[in-house]
Amino acid sequence: MKKLVLALSLAFALPALAKSPDDYQVTGEVKEISADIIVVMKGTEKFEIARPADLKTDAKVGDKVTIKYFMTAKSVEVKPAAAPKKK
Asked: Could you tell me the pTM of the whole model?
């Protein structure tokens, strides 16, 4: 019985320990909105945020909105570190 309780405890605890991306948010005016993207201006900064198909919103161009999002890597380009200078 103790082994079962331990196994169940671990099964529920491990997903909580997994690292998930940080959430971010931006508040600004909607400049463009479509089924695929929402463009928000925060001052002079332009945020183009992908819009998943299941995200429902009544926002329209000109509305002030706060969008919560997280970043996902699309690709990674590696450049070797510079060799240390010899003395």
From this structure: 0.64
